[in-house]
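Hey, I was hoping to borrow your eyes for a little while. A protein chain has come my way and I'm curious about its shape. Take your time with it, there's no hurry, and the full record follows here:
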Amino acid sequence: MDFLKITIPELLKDADLKSAFLIEVKKLGIKVNGTCTSCIVGYYQQYLKRVKMSKDTTVTASKYRVVNGGLVQSPYSTPISNANITDELVEKLLSRQPNAAAHFERVDGKPIGYVEPSQSEINATPAAIKLAEANGIDIATVAGTGKDGRISVSDVKDLL
């Protein structure tokens, strides 16, 4: 059965479908220890990561990872783990519980509250942006030496 074509609500409504899905999940080596809604959603996310994705299915990895043992969402749900983490979930928790930041870190090593600047906010010449992208340099990390801190090609070349 192709579980990529089944939606979460369909999966949760049909007991036979849920049983078949849990059997398939176990075959993939995913540890199954619950059948609550949040468990099934977490298993489905793990399933998507482990099976070959079809062209029309996109799954983005979270920019966060769990540290310090994770954080329980509520007394009735499972702890947040790297298997069921999503950017939306972490950002929602961080906005509601400031102490939640102790349980997460960004995969890229930047601080939890860091917001990526858009290209329009970066004070750099187009040539400097192009050169940085071509060499895998994050233009936001380059110190500009031009007028008002503008990043030039020479600033990027200094990092090469």
